[in-house]
Task: structure prediction
Amino acid sequence: MRLFVVNGPNLNLLGRRESGFYGTFSLADLETKIRGHVGDRAELAFFQSNNEGEIIGYLQNLKESDRLILNAASLTHTSIGIRDALAAVKVPFVEVHISNVYAREEFRHKSYLSAIAAGVIVGLGAEGYLLAADYFLRAGTGQ
Result:
């Protein structure tokens, strides 16, 4: 199984921004944690961009047989382009948010992605990524 982890804008600043919402771990720490959790049970690839177009281009290269853990960050609440790319490639994905978006500003309560996601995990910090990985690793498909 190929498992992709895609992170959106400002997540490259993990460990340096708003620790009350995002904790103190860095993006590198998060990737190491996911690698250790998944081990050799899946082929892993990580991608982060602050640019919506780069994320869309990356998603367009995924295949239906791939699996995706996606934290589109602020683009979750604004990007119809990312939603359209996901719908086009039909890759199963879990939407993940480190912070509890429902305990934050109201504009963060609307996701353009949730309705087409296999599931949504919010507010569990780095653990959310591990739970999403477990979903896909169970029975090898997550379906």
Q: What stands out?
A: The chain has five helices and five strands. The longest strand covers residues 2-7.
